[in-house]
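User: structure tokens for this one?
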Amino acid sequence: MPSTSGHLPRILRAIDDSPEDSIEQTLESTAVDDLSPKQQTVVLQSQRDWRRCLRILRWLRSRTENYVPNPIHYNIVIRSLGRSRQWDDLRLCWIDMAIARVPPTNNTYAILIDVYSRAGLVKEALLWLKHMRSRGLYPDEVTMNTAVRVLKDAGEFDLAESLFVDWCAGRDELDGSDSIGDDNNSATGISPKHFLLTELFRVPLPKSIEKSGPSVRKPKLAATYNTLIDLYAKAGRLADASDAFADMLRTGIAPDTYTFNTMIYISGHRGDLSEAEQLLGKMDERGILPDIKTFNILLTLYASAGNVKAFFACYDRIKGLKLRPDVVTHRIVLHSLCQMKLVREVDKMINRMERFGVVIDEQSLPVVVKLYVDEGMIEKANGFYEKHCVRVGGISPINYAAIIDVYAEKGLWEEAEAVFLGKGDAIGREKHVEEYNVLIKAYGKARMCDKAFALFGGMRSNGVWPDECTYNSLIQMASVCELPVKARGLLVEMREKAGFRPRYETFSAVIASHARMGLVSDAVNVYEEMMRSGVEPNEVVYGTLIDAFAEVGDVDGALLYYSIMEESGLPVNQIVLTSLIKAYGKVGHWEDAQELYSKMMDLEGGPDVIASNSMIKIYTGLGMVQEAKSVFSVLRDKGQADGVSFTTMMYFYKSMGMLNKAMEVAQEMQRSGLLTDCASFNNVMASYVTNGYLKECGELLHSMLVRKLLPNAFTFKLMFTLLKKGHFPIEAVDQLESSYSAGKPYSRQAVIASVFSLMGLHDLAVEACEAFEKADTLLDNTVYNAAILTYGASGNVDKALNTFMRMQDEGLKPDIVTYINLVCCYGKARMIEGVKRIYSRLNCGDIECNESLFKAISDAYKDAGRRDLAALVDQEMKFNFYMEQESGSELDVEDEELDVDDE
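Assistant:
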């Protein structure tokens, strides 16, 4: 038969094209058995499928006249079978190797160690190391390196180092391998470990020729040092890694790209970026080309250090070296840019990837969506999702869930729902429980319980079964939304129907929801269910129950669970003792509360602010001034006094008639930066109004608005009181109050503008008016009157008069408040004729006689410098109102004349 050695490529093509069931005929026709052993090795190595590889070896073994078995061929087949986890066929191949009297070599054992470790069978892999020692075969450097790598990847760093040291010293015992935990067996049901111990190791193999190794060994391969350096790096022993690298250089072993990559990572990990850059320079000096992994490491290090300039320079260098960025590169770049909130650069990167046809990897999709959402670019986030996330075959459920969760965290339930119900369905994607869970979370954050429960109700019909997380989320949501009955029903379903065992946090949420609603007996029932389920309550559960009893003033109930808690051996904390203090306070047992408070003094850190506030409330409720003041002073000295502390003392002093003290507390509260919500602002403003600090109250109102805190009904009640105390025309106050109560458009802005005008805060008043200046809605007299007042008081008379004309154009007739405000404008502008015109109409009866208008006209003349006219107006005002009073009396003319004569 002619030689076929020159036709190897043709033979390989023929084998590749051959169906599997006729591969033997192809081997026969191409005379593979006439190939040299080396060429046969190439044929075996070229097979990508373990079945073909095994069939070729068996066919060669059947050609006994031409084929001489050799370990290289068996090694190739063993590697193929091991990586495919075909343990039965591997066992048969091992037996066949023994029958053929082919002794396993170091390479054979290295392959076995490698394939078993790749299958997650670390302990079994290392048994091969012991097996080769039992046969008198000492591991060479490749085998030793493989074993060290296996131990390193398994996190057995000390054992890996011990193996390396022993090998270098000529000792080859692997002590400590039994401490490595067993992993799960193969999914085939055959235990590879059992297979090793009962079958493989019994095969009668001939003794190896190698009976002993050198007494002292020194690594000669760069791969060995690479493994050792990586081992030290993963173990956190960075100094030892550097020493191994130095020893490698001293020994004369040339480091490769992998070596430098590891060392660059180590340098960056310990914060030495300059050393990492020097290592990159040394690569260049040695003629070692960096690969894309080198730059991936550097990009990660620069991003972690926040060095934006170096980050972009590194990325530009990748392009300069014409390296092709891989999936990891793009992921690092996108993640880093998103973390640095560089939206424009992220957009550029995405455009570049699109130009080169690079698909954004799944893990980056939620990260980019999060960047856009965090920056308030919701439409852009939605567009990105539509363009990159809706793919043929979809993306993994975990990444869909991550995208939904981005929206959920911001309370954007509609966007979260759109992703859940979106175009992914159009490509036949099935939803998973993780996606349901995060949408339930989104509904929960938005307090949309009905939607969440409806979604939950439809899960099973869609073939998705709720998991423990589903129930926990629903129960937490129901508890927060004050739906204790629903929460308890879900808890029962979770236990009895779904078969899950709720955690103590779940029970605690249900107990707390009942307690907040005052359903103390139901909270106790849930606690008893918890005990029957074998779930041990913690101090939070007991604290909730004790607080529930305290809220309803049931001291005995609170003390009962306090006693149970102590008997359970749980530590008594400040929260529990504070609840007991509250319970005592509800029933007026201040001595018992005081005793507990003293007990808290012995705890680490002493009583917390809540306990101290409870004592202040107890003392103030009983009028115990000195005791309340003492506790408050201690809190203040420690810097622990909060809004509740200040507010309680403020109202206490006010109720005791100690207005100056109340004012001092209010001012200190403001200086302490404790005004964080509408209620705290209201408390201080109320104190200011009571004590006549009207301008300060107006300034506080402005601070409140600047912080985007919306005034509530109590705030407006304070503003009306402030206007009255500030001698604002009573007709204007009544008009503003009536408009506000009726909820008319821009009535709130009109009140605020009036307050600012009265306080002399004219810029703020004008700013408040701008809200309704451009309004398309039909406005009433109240709003126009406030605008006329605001512009006139600020000196912008033209705008005030234009507003008056606009009011008339809208068909609105001026009322008494309009005339009062117009007179004020005329006075400030020294428009005497305007004042006289309104005064004339008042005198002739066109305008109803009004004391506030008389006063406004008098003040206008004074503002215009005409005190003489003001005096006449005052005189007439007194006369008119005197006559009104007299006309209503019972005195007659005759009596008056008699009285005059008598005088």
